């Protein structure tokens, strides 16, 4: 095995980034906005940029991007929706959307649920897979159950017999209670049916883990304890493989650009690479310490791995050669999330409490060093746009920044100084696939649409 090249990140003098024309921009200058209900927490955009999904309280609201009309509300979660994500490609001319939350709506309503073996006071994470038509409306796989009508039909012969043969009064309270209990039991049975048929018992992986394969055919999720990986076939809605071997919590998982490999990174100090088709583990990298994030290079040749302990660093692993080829040091804390530029010439990382790092993975030379350290200490949602020309990220108080790597220009979309600057853990943002539009879910409950 070739020796690993250890490099400390170095910075080179650069001209300060200039403002792009028309920037900075603040609330009121957006192209359009959509006022939401209270409790909005997470956001996703369809691959063609036409549909938005917003987690609001325990439901998922679907909006048309052009008309700003709400076209659907998806109801199944019992508690707040924590994540919504679209598959990168449509299936049979339908959008595939997943939502994650705690519990299932309705399972707490019945007395039967309290005594059932299926009851669970802990409200485990649950994922639902939805199919939406091109207009954003839900495509139902089953005919909806009319609970009121079916309850009445079921009880009609029983009530007739009780009144005719046993002298019950049709208006007495006992029959009303019977009606309510049967209706409640039916609702609970429907929710159990939907849970078993349509829900997925598990959680999405953290720290920037993509929940879908690039071809959109596989969804990746973890068990409740984040100890093993599940590969779910989106088309057949069936579990294909469970990838077991990690002995501590899995921090990141993702699939290679050609969707043939799965990489997983865990707190047990190992990174593993698996065959996505067979589920067989191909490589085990015993790096030790605590590992956080990862990312495949755009050509699928390399895997970048973030290590926090014993010393913060980024390893670059050559998958074909099965060897570590470089290790970058000089980070004050661990890198939580990583992103490669589409051409593979730049690597970006979110450093916990220390801002954003951007460097050339072949040399270790940093880009925009002064710009990143001068004003920003904590960032998230790092992604490249416009073919890699721009780097988009969000700060913890909700401001979105754009940096044109080639032109050294800076964009900013913010609430404005007169609004005050606060921590904004609920903010979220998405960039359209064509890099023309930015949508920000701001802490005031408004979706703001900006031109990039």
Please explain how this structure is put together.
- The chain has 452 residues and is mainly beta.
- It has a domain of 49 residues.
- The protein is built from 4 helices and 35 strands.
- Strands 3, 4, 29, 30, 31 and 32 form a 6-stranded mixed beta sheet that branches. It has a 5-stranded mixed beta sheet with strand order 1-24-23-22-21, with no helix packed on it.
- The longest helix has 26 residues.
- It is globular, with a radius of gyration of 25 Å.
- About 4% of the residues have low confidence.
Secondary-structure map with pairings?
Layout: E1 5-8, E2 10-11, E3 18-19, E4 25-26, E5 32-35, E6 40-45, E7 51-56, E8 59-64, E9 70-75, E10 81-86, E11 95-102, H1 111-115, E12 125-132, H2 147-166, H3 173-198, E13 199-201, E14 218-222, E15 229-233, E16 238-243, E17 250-255, E18 261-266, E19 270-275, E20 281-286, E21 290-296, E22 302-309, E23 313-318, E24 323-329, E25 335-340, E26 347-351, E27 355-359, E28 365-366, H4 369-375, E29 379-385, E30 390-395, E31 400-404, E32 409-414, E33 428-431, E34 437-441, E35 446-451
Parallel strand pairs: 1-24, 2-28, 3-32, 4-32
Antiparallel strand pairs: 5-35, 6-7, 7-8, 8-9, 10-11, 11-12, 12-13, 14-15, 15-16, 17-18, 18-19, 19-20, 21-22, 22-23, 23-24, 25-26, 26-27, 29-30, 30-31, 31-32, 33-34, 34-35
Keywords: Repeat, WD repeat
Pfam family, one: WD40
Protein name: WD40 repeat-like protein
């Amino acid at each position: 095995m070739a020796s690993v090249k250890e490099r400390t990140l170095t910075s080179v003098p650069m001209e300060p980034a200039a403002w792009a024309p028309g920037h900075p921009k603040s609330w009121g200058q957006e192209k359009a906005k959509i006022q939401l209900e209270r409790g909005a927490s997470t956001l996703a955009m369809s691959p063609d940029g036409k549909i938005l999904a917003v987690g609001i309280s325990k439901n998922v609201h679907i909006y048309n991007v052009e008309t700003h009309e709400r076209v659907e509300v998806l109801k199944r979660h019992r508690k707040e929706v924590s994540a919504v994500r679209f598959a990168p490609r449509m299936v049979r001319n339908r959008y595939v959307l997943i939502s994650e939350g705690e519990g299932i709506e309705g399972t707490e309503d019945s007395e039967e649920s309290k005594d059932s073996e299926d009851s669970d006071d802990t409200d485990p994470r649950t994922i639902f897979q939805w199919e939406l038509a091109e207009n954003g409306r839900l495509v139902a796989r089953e005919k909806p159950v009319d609970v009121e009508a079916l309850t009445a039909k079921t009880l009609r012969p029983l009530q007739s017999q009780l009144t005719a043969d046993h002298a019950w009064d049709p208006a007495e309270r006992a029959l009303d209670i019977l009606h309510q209990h049967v209706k409640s039991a039916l609702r609970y049975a429907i929710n159990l049916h939907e849970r078993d048929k349509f829900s997925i018992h598990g959680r999405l992986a953290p720290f920037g883990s993509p929940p879908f394969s690039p071809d959109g055919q596989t969804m990746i999720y973890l068990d409740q304890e984040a100890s093993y990986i599940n590969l779910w076939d989106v088309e057949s809605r069936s579990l294909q493989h469970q990838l077991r071997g990690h002995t501590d919590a899995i921090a990141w998982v993702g699939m290679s650009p050609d969707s043939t490999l799965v990489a997983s990174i865990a707190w047990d100090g190992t990174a593993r690479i698996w065959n996505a088709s067979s589920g067989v583990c191909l490589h085990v990298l015993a790096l030790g310490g605590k590992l956080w994030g990862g990312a495949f290079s755009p050509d699928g040749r390399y895997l970048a791995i973030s290590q926090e302990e014993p010393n913060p660093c980024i390893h670059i692993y050559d998958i074909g050669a099965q060897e570590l080829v470089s290790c970058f040091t000089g980070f004050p804390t661990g890198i939580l999330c990583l992103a490669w530029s589409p051409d593979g010439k730049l690597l970006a990382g979110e450093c916990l409490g220390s801002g954003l790092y951007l460097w050339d993975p072949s040399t270790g030379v940093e880009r925009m060093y002064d710009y990143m350290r001068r004003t920003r200490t904590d960032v998230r949602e790092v992604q490249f746009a416009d073919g890699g020309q721009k780097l988009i990220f969000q700060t913890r108080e909700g401001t979105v920044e754009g940096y044109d790597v080639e032109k050294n220009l800076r964009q900013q979309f913010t609430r404005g100084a007169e609004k005050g600057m606060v921590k904004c853990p609920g903010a979220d943002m998405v960039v359209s696939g064509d890099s023309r539009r930015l949508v920000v879910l701001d802490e005031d409950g408004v979706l703001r649409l900006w031109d990039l």
